[in-house]
Specification:
The complex is a heterodimer of chains A (about 160) and B (about 375). Chain A is about 70% helix and about 0% strand. Chain A is mainly alpha-helical and about 160 residues long. Chain A has one domain. In chain A, helix 3 runs parallel beside helix 5 and helix 4 packs antiparallel against helix 5. The model of chain A has no long low-confidence stretch (mean pLDDT about 85). Chain B is α+β, with helices and mostly antiparallel strands and about 375 residues long. Chain B has a domain of about 80 residues: Rod shape-determining protein MreC, domain 2 (Thrombin, subunit H). In chain B, strands 1-2-5-4-3-12 form a 6-stranded antiparallel beta barrel. The N and C termini of chain B lie far apart (about 65 Å). The relative contact order of chain B is 0.12. The chains are: A mainly alpha (about 160), B alpha+beta (about 375). Chains A and B meet through helix 1, helix 4 and helix 5 of A and helix 1 and helix 2 of B.
Chain lengths: ~160, ~375
């Protein structure tokens, strides 16, 4: 993935964002709902790690706000958490990109966990805590999806 | 692979600007959250985002909806015939009930006119379809395909054919969000149909379970009791079925009974729901005849044992409510509480007609959910 040329138009960026937002609310059978990975967070991380010149923290913030609107939760909570993980990812970008895929997934796991933890914390502060342990299930699933996301998005980016 | 990068911009980015951007964006997000949480200042922004989101949400569920429509149109003839027979039989039964109902309704209205209290029956209803998107797996909320353009408003009650479904928490122009009665943040004031005992049913987060944690040990509740809405709080029309009691667990060590109920509305399988409009205005009884029953009933709610530690926001509201009532008759001093007027006035006429139930503690007028203030948005 080192040599992948990323040339995205804004149309592709918006398209990818909308697809990941749609994937967050697409109807699933109820037993699968818990396992739905945070596609928006994965998209944001991908942009921050592999296309950092194109998009960064402001994109993370806007995508988070859109996700808040989509899910009808407290406005700004995903904006905050995604900005924070985008910041960490941007800071460690050069290291993370040099990692082998498995190790990369481990870093993504940590970042997704941070995202979920911040959401958990904001939920609690805002007065409607979700203490169900199953909310953490999406984190390892998201990390497991990372290699897939990288392969898919690289294809998407390379196509002229 | 590429040996020469034509991009003249520096390879390393970030630096102090990155941290600065993080701080600015994080502060903006925090400001948004506070504004949204505190006083719902952002209704316009929220509605805007929801309006933009709706086409995508609609598109996401379109294949599912199309599939079910297709299946519907290819339904076999035998199934349609069977349905038809069943519906005709249902219709006959319902018509028979209606014959009695109409005369009863008239009688009821006449009696209420004598007592000068308003009937508060549902006057208008609107069918809305549930948009099949998963908003949040841990919250019991759904999106419907009608919004303020169709006259919906925040705090509106939603029913289905079997009972109370929930209420509107956010209404955009074309879509609205409905909180189900089984959401952990929802509380609905109810009444046991058999005995008239009033209490509050809280959602648990599971669609088949409501809990009634505020009934005293000696409350007259048995398994199988029908729970109907009491109409206190003014959000829900009174007298509509909410659930059936499924378990009563008396624990002598606890001051309160633990009662579980199953909602009657098909919370997780309804394709469409009914939004209702009803008369919220209650005729104020004249204070002279009202002062007496108000002071006599002020005793039991104040002295009866209250739940020890309110954890829920809705419950803390419900608890603070009776106190001003106990000190002064509510009709003489209109309270500046952000509660619907029905909560206080509705309670007062009840004891004048019937004896107060032995456990009048349950008569805490509850604001249904914590979030939406249902007052002031009647169309």
């Amino acid at each position: 993935m080192r040599g992948t040329r990323i040339n995205f138009g804004w149309g592709r960026v918006i398209g990818l964002t909308i697809i990941s937002l749609a994937a967050m609310v697409a109807p699933l059978p109820s037993f699968l709902e818990m396992f739905r990975p945070d596609f928006v967070a994965l998209t944001v991380l991908w942009f921050c790690l592999l296309a950092p010149r194109l998009l960064g923290l402001s994109y993370a913030w806007c995508a988070g706000l859109a996700l808040d609107g989509f899910r009808g939760v407290l406005l700004g909570q995903h904006a905050l958490t995604l900005t924070v993980i985008a910041y960490v990812a941007s800071k460690l970008r050069l290291q993370i990109r040099a990692f082998p895929p498995l190790q990369q997934s481990a870093v993504i796991l940590a970042l997704l966990w941070l995202n979920e933890f911040l959401l958990f914390w904001i939920d609690g502060v805002a007065g409607h805590p979700v203490t169900d342990w199953r909310r953490w299930l999406a984190v390892p699933v998201g990390a497991a999806c990372w290699p897939l996301v990288v392969a898919l998005y690289a294809r998407f980016a390379a196509r002229r | 692979m590429t040996t020469h990068d034509p991009d003249p911009r520096p390879l390393l980015l970030g630096g102090p600007a990155l941290g600065l951007r993080l701080i600015v964006l994080a502060l903006m997000a925090a400001g948004l959250m506070v504004a949204d949480h505190r006083n719902h200042l952002l209704a316009a922004i929220r509605d805007g985002v929801a309006t933009l989101a709706y086409p995508v949400q609609w598109a996401v569920q379109a294949p599912v909806a199309a599939w079910s429509a297709l299946r519907e149109s290819f339904a076999t003839r035998t199934r349609v015939e069977a349905d038809n027979v069943r519906l005709a039989a249902d219709n006959l039964v319902l018509r028979l009930k209606l014959l009695r109902f109409e005369s009863l309704e008239q009688e009821n209205q006449r009696l209420r006119a004598v007592r000068e209290s308003s009937a508060r029956v549902v006057q208008r209803s609107l069918v809305a379809e549930i948009v099949r998107v998963d908003l949040d797996p841990f919250r019991q909320r759904v999106l419907i395909n009608k919004g303020t353009r169709a006259g919906l408003f925040r705090g509106q009650a939603a029913l289905d054919a079997n009972g109370i479904f929930g209420q509107v928490t956010r209404a955009g122009p074309f879509s609205a969000e409905v909180i189900l009665i089984s959401d952990p943040e929802h509380a609905i004031p109810i009444q046991v149909n058999r005995t008239g005992v009033r209490s509050i049913a809280l959602g648990t987060g599971r669609s088949g379970l409501l809990s009634l944690p505020y009934l005293p040990q000696n409350a007259d509740v048995i398994v199988g009791d029908l729970l109907v809405s009491s109409g206190l709080g003014g959000v829900y029309p009174p007298g509509y079925p909410v659930g059936k009691v499924t378990a009563v667990k008396p624990d002598p060590g606890q001051p309160l009974l633990s009662v579980e109920a199953a909602p009657l509305a098909g919370l997780d399988r309804d394709p469409e729901i009914l939004l209702v409009w009803f008369e919220r205005e209650v005729i104020e009884p004249e204070p002279e005849s009202e002062a007496k029953p108000a002071t006599t009933t002020a005793g039991p709610p104040a002295t009866a044992p209250m739940p020890a530690q309110p954890t829920d926001q809705a419950q803390s509201q419900a608890q603070t409510q009776p106190q001003p009532q106990a000190q002064s008759p509510p009709q003489l001093q209109p309270q500046p509480q952000p509660q619907p007027p029905t909560a206080t006035t509705d309670q007062a006429p009840a004891p004048s007609a019937a004896q107060p139930p032995p456990d009048a503690q349950a008569e805490t007028p509850a604001q249904a959910p914590a979030e939406p203030p249902p007052e002031g948005n009647a169309p």
